[in-house]
Amino acid sequence: MAAEQFQALRNYLDSQVLGQPDFTESLLVALLADGHLLVEGPPGLAKTRAVNALAKGVEGSFHRVQFTPDLLPADLTGTDIYRPETGEFVFQQGPLFHNIILADEINRAPAKVQSALLEAMAERQITVGQKTYPLPALFMVLATQNPLEQEGTYPLPEAQLDRFLMHLNLDYPNADTERDILRLTRGEELQGQADMPQPLKQQDIFNARKEVLGIYMDEAVENYLVQLVIATREPSFYSSDLARWLNYGASPRATIALDRCARARAWLQQRDFVTPDDIHAVYAKVLRHRIILSYQAEADGIDADQVLAQIIQLVPAP
Description:
Keywords: ATP-binding, Nucleotide-binding. By secondary structure, the protein is an alpha/beta fold. It is built from 14 helices and eleven strands. A five-stranded parallel β-sheet has the order 2-5-8-1-9. The longest helix is centred in the middle third of the chain and has 17 residues, at about 175-190.
C-alpha cells in the first residue's frame, strides 16, 4: 500500500516538474531516508516549483524562507514576545516549526543564521534563550543555491554541508522538454495548477521509512558500500592520481547516508534487496559535498564528480 502511494506521489511530481526524473526521485529518497537536500542550479530550473509540488503531495505544513544577508537567527527559530496584558514572555514559533522548509539561496545568509539552521537540521530541535523546543517528527529542509552569483554570499562551511543527505546539481532541459514546459505553464494559466488528489499521510511516510530500513543488503554489497567511502580517505591504495586530487575524504556520516539512500532507492524500485546499481545511483549525490579536493585537482580541471566516478571504476564491485 505504501509503495503505491509513493508511486502516485512520484507520478504527481513528474507531472509538475518535467524532464527531471532524477531530481524527483531524489526528493522521494530524501523523504524516505529522513534527510535534507541541497539543490544547486541556475535560476529557472523549477527548484522552488519541485519543493512546492512535494509539499502539496504530502500531508503537513510548508514554509518558504528567502535567505538574505540581513536575516537573523530569530527569523528562523522564532523569539520570545512580551505580552504587556499578562506581563509574561510568550514564545512565538518561527518558520522552522513547519514540516517542509524551502531555504531559498541559503548561501546568502550570514554564518550565525546558518548555524541556527544547522542545529535544527542535525538535532531536530532549536534553542531560544534557555529553552529548547523539539521540531515536528516530519521535518525536511530543502535548500537551494545559485552557482552563477558569488557576490554577497557566504559559502557554507564543510560541517554544515555534511548535514545535507544529498547535494544535487541540476542542468538545463532539452528542446523537447522545453516545449512541454511551455504547454504546461500555458495550461496552468488557463486551468490552474493541479493538486494531488490525496496527499500522502505522515504516518504512511513513517511506516515506509521502517520498511526501507528492513530492505535486505547482502554482506558483500555492504562491504562494497563501505569500501567506496573508505577509498575517499585512502586514495593512494587505488591510484596515485586520486591521492593527488583528494585532501580529505568522507566521514562515517557519509556511509550512513549512502546506506539509507541506497535502501530507499531499492524500495522505490519495488525491490526488497539492494544492488550495487542502487549504490552507484546515489553515490555522487551523497559524497560530492563531503570530499575536499586539493589545489592539484583544481589545476588539473578535475571536479568532485570525476573523482567519485574514478573511485567507482577502481573499487571492485561484488
